[in-house]
Design a protein that fits this description.
Shape: globular
Radius of gyration: 18 Å
Distance between the termini: 14 Å
Number of strands: 6
Largest sheet: 2 strands, antiparallel
Mean pLDDT: 90
Number of domains: 1
Strand order of the largest sheet: 1-2
Number of helices: 10
Bound molecules: zinc ion
Structural class: mainly alpha
Low-confidence stretches: none
Order of helices and strands: EEEEHHHHHHHHHEEH
């Protein structure tokens, strides 16, 4: 069950005060996807993960806490074009715009997540080419985050598994296979190894579709996901 509530938010860029809907609580049932997208019900709260100011067009997870350089970014033609790009779902535009603000502030990790969320918004709208575009941008941003020492999660190996899935689902199978190969030089936990083995199988089958962590760990049963497996629990709880 998801609970929502209304909250008055003052945009930190233009000062406009608006009523926004926030998530009080939600829950998950099942397995996240390989790129960490949560299962139901949280999956469908994605519309509440980004706010857009109706006055100045600033986009952020919370409009009252926009990054420092937002004022400059939201006036650029690149931002304004993206904000109203009719080729993308409006929700995806908001996430991409939020990522542009994070990027201008050197927040590569937050920018990566916003682009991943944009890809999910495109998935939901069945706009595959746009989802591919978002995933390619997310993969490039993730590498920027990696290079600067910013991490997307504290879960060991998670950043590499996310990168592999972004590349695979963007159709960049050779690149995804290369990242898996390179990751073998790093000592990592068994769960990561199993996810990478499963990704290798998908790549060899030219499968660029959506799959879950439960499938990778062999925890998908005829009755749904086996909720009691310890490895699964460890990986799940981080993303809740
Ligand atoms: Zn504003």
């Amino acid at each position: 069950m998801t609970t929502l509530y209304k909250k008055s938010i003052r945009c930190s860029v233009c000062g406009d005060e608006s009523e926004q809907t926030a998530i009080g609580s939600t829950s998950i049932f099942g397995s996240p996807d390989l790129d960490t997208r949560p299962p139901e019900i949280k999956r469908y709260t994605i519309h509440k993960w980004v706010q857009r100011c109706s006055v100045c067009g600033s986009c952020a997870s919370c409009l009252s806490q926009t990054s420092a350089h937002a004022q400059d970014v939201i006036q650029t033609s690149e931002y304004l074009t993206q904000l109203s790009d009719s080729n993308f779902p409006e929700l995806a535009n908001s996430f991409v715009c939020a990522s542009m603000i994070h990027e201008s502030n050197g927040e590569w990790s937050a920018a990566t997540w916003a682009l991943i969320h944009a890809a999910w918004a495109c998935d939901d709208a069945s706009q595959s080419p746009q989802a591919v575009t978002c995933r390619k941008r997310a993969a490039a941003m993730l590498r920027k985050a990696q290079a600067s020492g910013q991490t997307l999660s504290d879960q060991p190996g998670a950043i590499t598994t996310i990168l592999v899935d972004l590349l695979r689902r963007a159709g960049e199978l050779d690149e995804a296979a290369k990242v898996i190969q390179e990751s073998k030089a790093t000592k990592t936990e068994d769960t990561v190894i199993r996810i990478m083995e499963y990704q290798t199988e998908l790549i060899q089958a030219n499968d660029i579709g959506c799959h879950t962590i439960a499938e990778a760990l062999g925890e998908e049963t005829d009755h749904g996901v086996n909720e009691s497996k310890p490895a699964r629990k460890r990986w799940w709880q981080f993303w809740q």
